[in-house]
Amino acid sequence: MPTRRRHQFVYGQLAWMVATVLVLTVLGALSYELFFVLSLIGVLIVTELTAPVNVTPAWRRRLRWLIAIGLAGFAIVVTRRILEILPPEVVPI
Fold first, then answer.
1. Where along the chain do its domains lie?
2. How far is CA 39 from the centre of its chain?
3. H helices present in 1-89, as ranges
4. pLDDT at 93
């Protein structure tokens, strides 16, 4: 049972990431930041869709670290984008 769930998670995440690359390429908007953010959204969605009902396996508990690191990276991406938008006189360097 845990192996089946783990495979569902991996295959679901791979499918999400491949679809993300294809859609971003078709739209002409492929960038590392956008791919990272959409992949993080995919991790969150696939994690919820493949969550077991009663017991949380050890590999699922380790996913929390991956999600925490992804959210920290997301905060960095958002901060960089906000700093790009703000006028130079607002942000002293």
1. 2-85
2. 4
3. 2-27, 32-49, 58-85
4. 64
